[in-house]
């Protein structure tokens, strides 16, 4: 039985809606190119302001995914 | 007049909905066994991913509650 | 062409609804007195508890705004 | 010979006098319910302000105490 | 009913006496120009040394104050 | 289906052998009184020195355990 | 003899040249509106990239200045 | 003579044995796909618990490797 | 309209000249393989010493780049 | 005119009285062997507990002192 | 009765074996020149990689030792 | 074959020119009394302001040097 190894990617998901939606958007994008996504962690929440309002939410997350065993 | 003392518990609330809901779920659970809940702080936001989507949100919070005066 | 300078203000927005709403409330208030708001960062999420429930969400944010060129 | 294990509790001691007194108040309260208190660490110093003065000091401390061997 | 917003100012209070006194001096000064002071947090304790003794204590604090509702 | 809630306890495991053994000792002790232990995190590694040698290893860990659903 | 109090402002100075120049630009701007500038600390170094090159350097600094005694 | 550039990958190595073994397992896996591995740093030590015992150790490491010069 | 997602790469640029030059060297190298570079952040400044002098500067930076929309 | 260089020593001052006194005791001891002491910073406040009371305060400080020009 | 003062030295112990051994090697070396060693704390674990394997472990530790009373 | 041990010294180099020069000045001074200097890390960048301009740059660095084998 082998021990699994995981790789961690850092991405920034964005949304005009809020924190939860930005996380979901970032993960949806990451899942287009990475397989075996296993967990995420929120590292930073920022955003742009325009006309005195939140124009977009930018949530930096780390995504852990299991590397395939060869 | 006595000075109050507060105790701090660390818990992880979870939700399939998002950050706010995970906090509320954790506090609802904590309020079943702790009295005089006074404040909370979010320490960490993580979650599990399944099929390239967020399966649950896990929000670590610290909860402060006032100790009874004896 | 001049280099811009930005100033950073730290505020706490509050809400009975959740994190996103507290951020928006804080920024709406800040935009009453500050111009050229450019970005924000969430620094801390806390709140008061009453009767074992979240009474309000308090989100500390830093707001960056561009200083006018004189 | 057994290896000892310690548990760590986090509390907030308060005082109208200052930092040292808030620590002592918190530890006095903790010693009513915990035995074998061994060490403490100050994690945070905050307080309430009223009428432009410090109304109380709130000092968050971690307290380590030795668990009984069974 | 409106949600309150708080602003946070960072100051350094000083004293020849010690930590508590430096905090009180800083807050006394801040209360000359800011209204509705609500809480403080100690961020850093430093000081100058002269002739191998503490010449002054410099305590960096953040002060939260409620913004007036317009 | 209910959302699980987890509680986090902070303990210090000790050993004369090394880091891994101190973690295992701390968890063995915790499992005498806590059920449903789920994960741990190492927060700090320290130790006492005697006669210029490591006398014991002290490893602070956080232990997460699932709260029973009532 | 009074104890001095200092206030801390956080700004972002920018430059197309590099870190040192961005600090100097930010301080030059701050000195237009603040008096008695006393010290600075660099908190963060970031920048925009365009066409695979650094388009500008953004250095966040805290500036301490002595408040006038009244 | 060119200046070298290094890239940093973040992975999680696992083991049923302990910290050192989890690091070695993670690096063995990484060396299957990355060349010129140069250094590593341990960022986090966690693990799963089952039946009140450590089921596996999960050690997050950053691995630095030299990019080839083209 | 789609929300953008950004990926973050961590690299170490080096230089015999200084901090600014090491950043520029690292970004020049990264731009050979990554497109749509958008921002960078300096995370760490280190270096090797030889004969009591700085032999090279090693600046760890995070680089954010926009992922292509598919 | 030469640029000064400072060295930083880390010490732990102790006291049965409180934080301020532990700092002063540590500095008094350091001034027996170091010259040109210039500033200090408090890094950590801990202490031993005996019989449910603070037995001693242990304050870790960094002390900066100017190196002599040769 | 005098209050003790402790000094803290920071060293890097190395080993080809693992974390525990690197700590022990560093302390063995430190004990050749320092007396009254009292405690240590692990601050960082790094290492060199060669041929895709750990060539050495480098563990940064702080060592506290009691200063002699004069 | 022995394992090397390194010691770490913390110093503050200063300059009227900028960050890089302050680092070089500090290392030049350190190399007058320490041998086998191996690496440095920048920990903090601060400075004094006079007349609204940077009067000097103060860069805190840690310097690692190999201890001689006896």
TrEMBL record, chains A, B, C, D, E, F, G, H, I, J, K, L:
InterPro entries xref list: Dodecin, Dodecin-like, Dodecin-like_sf, Dodecin_bact
Gene3D superfamilies associated with the record: Flavin-binding protein dodecin (3.30.1660.10)
Domain of life: Bacteria
Pfam families in the record: Dodecin (PF07311)
Protein name: Flavin-binding protein dodecin
């Amino acid at each position: 039985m082998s021990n699994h190894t995981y790789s961690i990617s850092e991405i920034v998901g964005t949304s005009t809606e809020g924190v939860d939606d930005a996380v979901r958007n970032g993960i949806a994008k990451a899942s287009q190119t990475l397989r075996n996504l296993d967990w995420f962690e929120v590292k930073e929440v920022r955003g742009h302001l325009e006309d005195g309002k939140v124009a977009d939410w930018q949530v930096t997350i780390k995504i852990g995914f299991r590397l395939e065993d060869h």
